[in-house]
Every structure is written in structure tokens, then in C-alpha cells.
Design a protein that fits this description.
Length: 201
């Protein structure tokens, strides 16, 4: 286990070492946790699970963390027991497994963790990939919110549904690009479904 006192040191450690999981504080000096997470996903191209720690829990703050590529979001103050449970849940779930998934013109290449819609590659976060894999395997059936929460957090779910809403929002931006028919449908009071046909709910 390594410790970095600032964001630049965190980037250096991640350049030279491989970790099972990374815990990032949003308020790191030098380069913020958000900046480090963004760098991990876009430049270092690492899919290592990331938990973001912050004193802020507005939905916009949660969304910013997930947009940067975080897998989970823990608000201060928190117990070490909760942090350990969240870490264990992330490590148990790992990545997606299988071959290629397809719904309409949406393709998920499980081996390379890449997503294409109408032939164009779409950026999807690591947690978004796990949700998309579940939705595509279940299509056209509904995936409940409880199933999604279990997939992402196991028996240590966040205290509000803001985190799940943020993940779904980002996934919808990737899957339902402007000008394309909607595939990700909300089934109110139940969950979500991925299908060509209009949402019947």
C-alpha cells in the first residue's frame, strides 16, 4: 500500500506501480483528485477501481466525480469499516466478462472494454461498462435499481440514490448520442431497460 501527499505524487506512483484499487481525495494539493482520476482514465488509460473521498455531496459534485472516471464516491466523515466494505465490493465486481454484446446498433466489446454506437466509439466509465454489460445481457427485460446497486456496491450501498442516478446519466449520454434513437429507457419506480422499442412504462 502506497500513500501520496499530493496529486502529482499520486500520478507518479500510478505511473510506476499497478494497484488493485485507488482511493483519491478530491482536495489533493498540486493536482486535485478529480484531475488525477481524469488522468488515470484518459492518459494512463487505467481501469483500476477508484473511490473518491470528498466533503461535498451535492449531486453535481457526485456527477463530477463520476465524469472524471471514479467508480464510487464516499462523503466525509466516514467510518473505516464503510470504506473497507466499499473497497471489497469494488474488488469483487472487477470488470465485465464474456465476448461481445449487441443491442440494435450498440456494440460492447468486452475484451477491449470499448463501446460503439452507430459505428462511433463512445466513452464509458468503468462502472458504466458494468452497468451496460448488465443491461445488454438482460435486454429487453427491465433491470431493477436494486440489481444495479448490488452490481456496483454489493452490501455497502451509498446512503442516497444520487450516485446511481449520476452513473445512469453518464451512461445515457454515451449510449443515446444526439440524433440517434433512444435505447436506454427509464421504467419509473422499477429501473431501466435497454431496447430499440419505445419504453412501455
Amino acid at each position: 500500500m502506497d500513500y501520496a501527499s499530493d496529486g502529482l505524487q499520486a500520478r507518479a506512483l500510478c505511473t510506476h506501480n499497478r494497484y488493485e484499487a485507488i482511493i483519491l481525495d478530491v482536495g489533493l494539493p498540486g493536482a486535485s483528485g478529480l484531475d488525477v482520476c481524469r488522468w488515470l482514465r484518459t492518459e494512463a488509460r487505467l481501469a483500476t477501481p477508484v473511490i473518491m473521498l470528498t466533503a461535498r455531496d451535492l449531486e453535481t459534485d457526485v456527477l463530477a466525480g463520476f465524469e472524471a472516471g471514479a467508480d464510487d464516491y464516499l462523503k466525509k466523515p466516514f467510518s473505516l469499516k464503510e470504506l473497507a466494505a466499499r473497497l471489497a465490493a469494488l474488488l469483487r465486481r472487477g470488470g465485465v466478462a464474456g465476448a461481445e454484446r449487441a443491442v440494435a446498433d450498440l456494440r460492447l466489446d468486452v475484451a477491449t472494454h470499448t463501446v460503439h454506437r452507430a459505428g462511433v466509439r463512445r466513452p464509458v466509465t468503468p462502472s458504466g461498462l458494468r452497468l451496460l454489460d448488465l443491461l445488454m445481457r438482460s435486454s429487453p427485460a427491465v433491470v431493477t435499481r436494486d440489481q444495479m446497486i448490488e452490481l456496483l456496491w454489493g452490501d455497502a450501498p451509498p446512503s442516497s440514490d444520487a450516485a446511481l442516478r449520476a452513473h445512469v446519466h453518464l451512461l445515457r449520454q454515451a449510449v443515446d448520442a444526439p440524433g440517434l434513437p433512444r435505447l436506454l429507457h427509464t421504467v419509473h419506480g422499477v429501473g431501466y431497460r435497454l431496447a430499440e422499442e419505445p419504453d412501455a412504462a
